[in-house]
Backbone:
């Protein structure tokens, strides 16, 4: 009896699974149709016909106008980045601002820093709107009243009060803060709120804002060792940092490829280790003061004990292997390291830090400590004897010993130490800050052991990740189980601009505008996670940063014109069309080519390209969310322009053999354009295509997207969505009938072998998994 029940149970399972499979296939067939006839194959017009069509016209501004907006139109936040903590938008009314508008300082009106900050605001507003305001003591009906209740520290400090209150009525603006820094942060918000409506008039929403930062440490690291950055470039970066409310400029000054600081105590450091590209001590003082006036701290980094080849060019006695050294031209983790066992090493560093402490007033000094390759230590008998004598256990223990000695030297000069993850096991003083580049797990370990932490993992700008990726990274993710005291030790984060593949001509295009997104994560409330609204606001911030003098957008156009090398405007426009559909890839893709060094000029097409194409993001938004005739017409025009752009560029490639990579990209864009036209024909006419055709086209798109090294053809993105999610497809009738036949045979076989009491449950699970995965789609 029990055997019969078991057999019956198995038959029931088989029948149920078979019925599920049949129902699935029926639904599958009804939804997608069974291809009983060959689908229509549209013949595309050739290049000549497309070029002769005068209706084909692409207006990027019109495309932007039909792109859906995600920030509420009734809210003031669509112009703000970072988003303030509290906003009260009063009935959507607006205040008019004309050239008669006056700016009045009620307190500390003679303070030079405060007056300079206001003049900087006036200058930026003029760049943005063309209207020049006045700073005056005369009381008028239209005025900005600035109330600074206290100047705070002369040099910005970690954890200082950065809060402010901004209140806008129909005829007055009141900005109030307890410190100079609060006034600076409030002026940055005010600059974003003001909008030009005609040549003589601006408007600002009537609003109340109470704002403060979420984290006290909001930084940007700039690597000037691998590629030197002139003072003017650093000025532009600091100006943009002020706008997005970043407050720490982490200056990576030394590495294997260069020593960038003038040292009068050890002049061979900069004379022999910099190729002549270094900052004089006057430059250092100027940059520190320039940042101070924008309430930005300057934290220097002198990386040690590794990443120190440039030190050894002038002073080889510092090295584990004291021999002749040259400045490194390649990237990577190298063997050369300081010798931590010699007292002369610590005497040298004591004198050096004493000199640097007079140049950098910040209480924190960064000493690196990352990527220590201990091969030379392992090969040295004297160093291994030292490890045994001091009971340091191993090379890691030796690094911990070195870090503690360096920390004691810094403490002697009233400085606190910061280092990368690798110094965590060094048994350091409790006030130490450790910067996590290896992940949130490392950050949790840092604060759990009683140290302070800042996060950089996920904020590496040289990877050229999307703004959406950076927006998804939060210093407090995964820290729910930490005690409140431990979570409070997470001070914030830093974006990192490493310069292996960045020069002074391209650095701003790699930093901005994506760093503004990281700045928002570190300033605004954690609840602000709307990616689509973030991109809306990022457009405004991108243009504002360019308007105040960073010029990363203006330089994009200028560099393309340089590549064209002629005054032919049509040729330039065609090259720009191609460039707008491409995105530069980051360090991982570029390092695979193995053809770069610090001496290679970074002036190719990939260096001009932006990390993220605003045009392509607009197009992707349109194809996903806009279903109307106007959008379809614009997409037809766009794909037509892409399809014919290569014809316009042929003469350019014919005369420039060096641009073969651009020629292949251009050909691929033409293929994408023609494929896009074909896909739109199927969609517009409601035609059905075979699943195999869609799969074949998708494989072509994957090849086109990354066929040219170091560059992504981003135009593939919106077409892939149309192909996989909008085109109606059908299942080939042969496949459909074959699957039905297999199910029937399966039932027969099960009936025949049923007496063997086979357990079919594991096979049923496999069938369910296959059915599930075959039904999932890209969209």
Residues:
């Amino acid at each position: 009896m029990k055997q019969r029940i078991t057999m019956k149970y198995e038959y029931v399972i088989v029948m149920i699974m078979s019925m599920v499979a049949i129902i699935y296939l029926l639904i599958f067939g009804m939804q997608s149709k069974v291809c009983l006839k060959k689908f229509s194959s549209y013949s595309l017009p050739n290049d000549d016909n497309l070029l002769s069509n005068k209706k084909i016209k692409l207006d990027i501004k019109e495309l932007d106008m039909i792109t859906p907006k995600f920030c509420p139109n009734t809210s003031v936040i669509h112009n703000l980045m970072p988003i303030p903590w509290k906003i009260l938008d009063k009935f959507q009314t607006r205040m008019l601002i004309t050239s008669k508008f006056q700016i009045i300082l009620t307190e500390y009106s003679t303070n030079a820093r405060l007056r300079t900050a206001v003049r900087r605001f006036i200058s930026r507003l003029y760049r943005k709107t063309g209207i020049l305001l006045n700073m005056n003591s005369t009381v008028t009906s239209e005025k900005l009243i600035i109330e600074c209740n206290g100047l705070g520290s002369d040099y910005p400090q970690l954890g200082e009060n950065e809060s402010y209150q901004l209140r806008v009525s129909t005829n007055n603006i009141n900005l109030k803060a307890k410190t100079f820094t609060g006034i600076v942060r409030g002026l940055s918000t005010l600059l974003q709120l003001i909008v030009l409506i005609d040549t003589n008039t601006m408007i600002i929403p009537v609003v109340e804002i109470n704002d403060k930062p979420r984290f006290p440490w909001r930084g940007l690291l700039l690597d000037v060792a691998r590629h030197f950055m002139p003072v003017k470039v650093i000025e532009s970066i600091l100006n943009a940092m002020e706008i997005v409310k970043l407050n720490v400029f982490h200056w990576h000054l030394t590495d294997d490829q260069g020593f960038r600081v003038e040292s009068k105590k050890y002049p061979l450091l900069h004379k022999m280790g910099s190729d002549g590209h270094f900052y004089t001590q006057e430059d250092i003082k100027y940059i520190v003061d320039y940042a101070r006036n924008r309430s930005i701290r300057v934290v220097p980094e002198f990386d040690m004990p590794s990443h120190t080849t440039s030190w050894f060019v002038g002073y080889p006695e510092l090295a584990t292997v004291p021999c002749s050294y040259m400045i490194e031209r390649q990237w990577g983790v190298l063997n050369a390291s300081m010798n931590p066992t010699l007292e002369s090493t610590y005497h040298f560093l004591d004198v050096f830090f004493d000199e640097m402490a007079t140049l950098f007033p910040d209480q924190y000094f960064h000493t690196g400590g990352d990527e220590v390759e201990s091969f030379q230590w392992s090969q040295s008998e004297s160093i291994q004897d030292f490890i045994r004598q001091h009971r340091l256990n191993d090379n890691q223990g030796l690094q911990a010993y070195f870090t503690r000695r360096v920390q004691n030297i810094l403490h002697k000069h009233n400085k606190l130490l910061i280092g990368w993850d690798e110094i965590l096991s060094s048994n350091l003083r409790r006030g130490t800050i450790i910067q996590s580049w290896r992940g949130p797990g490392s950050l949790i370990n840092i604060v759990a052991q009683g140290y302070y932490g800042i996060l950089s993992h996920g904020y590496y700008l040289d990877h050229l990740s999307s703004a959406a990726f950076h927006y998804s990274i939060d210093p407090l993710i995964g820290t729910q189980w930490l005690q409140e005291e431990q979570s409070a030790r997470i001070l914030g984060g830093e974006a990192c601009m490493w310069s292996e593949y960045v020069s002074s001509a391209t650095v701003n295009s790699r930093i901005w505008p994506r760093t503004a997104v990281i700045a928002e994560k570190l300033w605004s409330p954690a609840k602000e996670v709307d990616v689509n609204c973030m991109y809306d606001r990022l457009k405004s911030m991108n243009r504002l940063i360019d308007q105040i003098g960073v010029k990363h957008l203006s330089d994009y156009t200028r560099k393309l014109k340089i590549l064209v090398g002629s005054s032919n405007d049509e040729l330039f426009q065609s090259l720009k069309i191609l460039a707008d559909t491409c995105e530069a890839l980051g360090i991982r893709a570029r390092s695979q080519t193995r053809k770069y060094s610090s001496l290679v000029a970074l002036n190719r097409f990939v260096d001009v390209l932006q990390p993220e194409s605003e045009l392509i993001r607009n197009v992707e938004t349109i194809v996903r969310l806009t279903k109307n005739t106007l959008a379809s017409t614009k997409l037809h025009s766009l794909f037509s322009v892409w399809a014919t752009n290569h014809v316009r560029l042929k003469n350019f490639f014919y005369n420039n053999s060096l641009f073969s990579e651009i020629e292949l990209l251009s050909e691929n864009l033409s293929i994408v354009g023609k494929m896009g036209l074909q896909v739109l024909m199927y969609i517009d006419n409601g035609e059905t295509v075979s699943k195999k055709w869609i799969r074949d086209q998708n494989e072509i798109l994957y090849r086109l997207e990354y066929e040219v090294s170091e560059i992504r053809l981003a135009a593939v993105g919106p077409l892939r969505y149309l192909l996989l999610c909008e085109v109606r497809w059908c299942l080939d009738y042969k496949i459909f009938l074959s699957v039905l036949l297999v199910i029937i045979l399966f039932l027969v076989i099960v009936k025949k072998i049923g007496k063997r009491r086979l357990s079919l449950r594991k096979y049923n699970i496999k069938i369910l998994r296959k059915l599930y995965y075959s039904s999932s789609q890209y969209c």
Observations:
- The mean pLDDT is 87.
- The first strand starts at residue 34 and ends at 35.
- The radius of gyration is 31 Å.
- Residues 47-65+555-726 form one domain.
